[in-house]
Design goal:
Layout lengths: L2 E5 L3 E6 L10 H13 L7 E6 L10 H7 L4 H19 L5 E5 L2 E3 L1 H8 L2 E5 L3 E3 L13 H8 L2 H10 L3 E2 H6 L5 E3 L4 H13 L3 H14 L4 H16 L2 H11 L8
Parallel strand pairs: 2-3, 3-4, 4-6, 5-7, 6-9
Antiparallel strand pairs: 1-2, 7-8
């Protein structure tokens, strides 16, 4: 099995099981991510964790598959890329936070998937590589958008034009990774983040995800309007009632 979903109560864990090919993308991984995004709509689900069952998060597209894809027409190849892009869109639209637990490294579209998550925990020594140029290809799955938002332009260009790996430690310094942990402990770090998320207000977290996502492309005036509307809704909700009461009563809030 090259991919599976583990139901861990308040979270879903997507395991990329293609260890023999360093976690290269498979149709089964596509299906697992798509199913997890659908199941994330369930109120009990508070987060989704994406990780690998092997020692490398994801090496991106399988070059053997890409060789076969050369035989297709350009419109047919465009459809194949759209399938991956629809997957990234579903991740961006997730109602709950997504956490990437990265061991070994993430390359090509594997890097795209990691950066499509909201939080990233990486093991020491893990490397992040925009490897496309090595195969005469260009980034997809939203990688250029993610890199442009997260990194200085010269570094984003260096990664894409030269395919130079960036260490987890460097990504942490730049604010593109949330935590660097000991090798083999990425899932432990992701679990700690998932526990913290599970203790928080689900609806407010989902709204925050949407607000941050739109902030990169929206004018300040439009973003202020979006924040106003979101705050007006949140202030009248049950989560705010519990959160405010808990704060005033100096206790830990208990969200439903």
């Amino acid at each position: 099995m090259t991919a599976r979903i583990e139901d861990a109560g308040d979270r879903l864990i997507i395991w990329n099981g293609n260890a023999a090919r360093r976690g290269a993308l498979t149709p089964e991984l596509y299906d697992a991510i798509a199913e997890a995004m659908r199941r994330a709509e369930e109120p009990r689900i508070r987060s989704v964790v994406l990780t690998s069952a092997g020692d490398f998060f994801c090496a991106g597209g399988d070059l053997n598959v890409l060789i076969e894809r050369r035989k297709l027409s350009e419109p047919e190849r465009r459809l194949r890329v759209d399938t991956l892009h629809d997957l990234v869109r579903s991740m961006r639209a997730s109602p709950v936070p997504l956490i990437a637990a990265v061991e070994g490294g993430a390359a090509g579209a594997g890097l795209s998937l990691a950066l499509a998550c909201d939080l990233i925990v990486a093991a020491k020594g893990a490397k992040f590589t925009a490897a496309y140029i090595k195969a005469g290809l260009v980034p997809d799955a939203g990688l250029t958008a993610s890199l442009a938002r997260m990194l200085p332009r010269p570094l984003a260009m260096e990664m894409c034009l030269l395919a130079r790996p960036v260490t987890a430690e460097r990504m942490l310094e730049l604010g593109a990774v949330n935590a660097v942990v000991e090798t083999g402990q990425a899932m432990t770090g992701a679990t700690e983040l998932a526990d913290s998320i599970a203790a928080g207000p689900r609806a407010a977290q989902g709204t925050i995800r949407r607000l941050v996502a739109t902030a990169y492309e929206t004018s300040e005036a439009a973003q202020l309007d979006a924040e106003r509307d979101a705050m007006a809704r949140a202030a009248g909700g049950e989560e705010a009632a519990e959160g405010i009461a808990a704060f005033l009563e100096k206790r830990t809030p208990e969200y439903r």
